[in-house]
Write a structure and sequence with these properties.
single chain, about 250 residues, alpha/beta, Rossmann fold, 7-stranded parallel β-sheet, 7 strands, globular, binds NADP nicotinamide-adenine-dinucleotide phosphate
């Protein structure tokens, strides 16, 4: 039996990495899938890969006037939303002394403000009983040099999931976060680092993770499926940590 038969699902940042793997799994499990991202070309390629009638909509989560239009369009095409995955995010790392206001604003506007308003603007378009999942990170509770601002935005969304759960309990809308550890995706290469630096960072991450490797996107998508489906119906305001032990050691 498919776990998301006819469920209307939206995955922000669904044209790459974790979001794309999640969208593919949701579609394979019977969901009607919409993905968003800023890049039309990668959205088109991702939609072709997902199949099952998925659609892609260009939207920048840090630009609030973009967000409502996505939900209006989804509702028009598929109906009200059952599962919202607030996943769009960037990893901007630099030593504290070198971290610019622009880097800070980008990190905060996409990972924190973007997440907050992705949920707020969705409220009129969500079915009662919907599941909202926000992508946090295993670094949210850890010290990681060069990633203080990033980690803080992820701690912020973990907090949001608790607060939102309290606010939305009367509509039986569950809000949880999923906290991945270091996962093999293009995110590290979008940071202005050279290929060599990216490889070095990944090797370091693998080394400090008890699993001794990076996770893969399919392992994380399984967690998003759990949180989307009724299997997790007793989980509210929680944090599903899938991190190869990264945050525990
Ligand atoms: N990979 C890891 O090790 C790891 C670990 C913990 C948490 N995470 C989190 O997992 C999420 C997905 O990351 P990923 O690793 O899969 O990276 P990724 O492959 O770089 O994917 C990031 C996604 O976010 C979208 N995005 C970025 N800024 C956006 C914006 N302003 N508006 C709309 N979409 C935006 C990107 O699409 P466009 O470029 O087209 O906008 C892309 O689809 C992020 O929240 C990240 O912080 C990742």
């Amino acid at each position: 039996m498919k776990k998301l038969e006819n469920k209307v699902t939206v995955v922000t940042g669904g044209n790459s990495g974790i979001g794309l793997a999640t969208a593919k799994l949701y579609a394979a499990q019977g969901a009607k899938v919409t993905i968003t991202g800023r890049n039309q070309t990668t959205l088109d390629a991702a939609v072709a890969e997902i199949g099952h009638g998925a659609i892609g909509l260009v939207s920048d989560v840090s630009d609030l006037k973009n967000i409502t239009g996505v939900y209006e369009k989804v509702t028009e095409i598929f109906g009200k939303i059952d599962v919202l995955v607030v996943n769009a995010g960037v990893f901007v790392a630099a030593p504290l002394a070198d971290y610019t206001e622009e880097m800070f604003d980008q990190t905060s506007d996409i990972n924190f403000k973007g997440a907050f308003f992705s949920v707020q603007k969705a409220l009129p378009f969500l079915n009662d009983g919907a599941s909202i999942i926000i992508t946090s990170s295993a670094v949210s509770g850890k010290a990681m040099a060069t990633a203080s601002a990033y980690a803080a935005t992820k701690a912020a969304v973990t907090s949001l999931a608790r607060g939102f759960s309290a606010e939305l309990a009367d509509r039986k809308i569950r809000v949880n976060v999923l906290s991945p550890g270091p996962i093999e995706t293009p995110i590290f290469g979008r940071n202005g680092m050279t290929a060599e630096e990216v490889d070095g960072m990944k090797a370091y991450m693998a080394d400090i993770t008890p699993a001794k490797r990076l996770g893969n996107v399919e392992e994380i998508a399984e967690g998003f499926l759990y949180l989307a489906s009724d299997d997790s119906k007793y989980m509210i305001g929680g944090d599903l940590v899938l991190d190869g032990g990264f945050s525990r050691f």
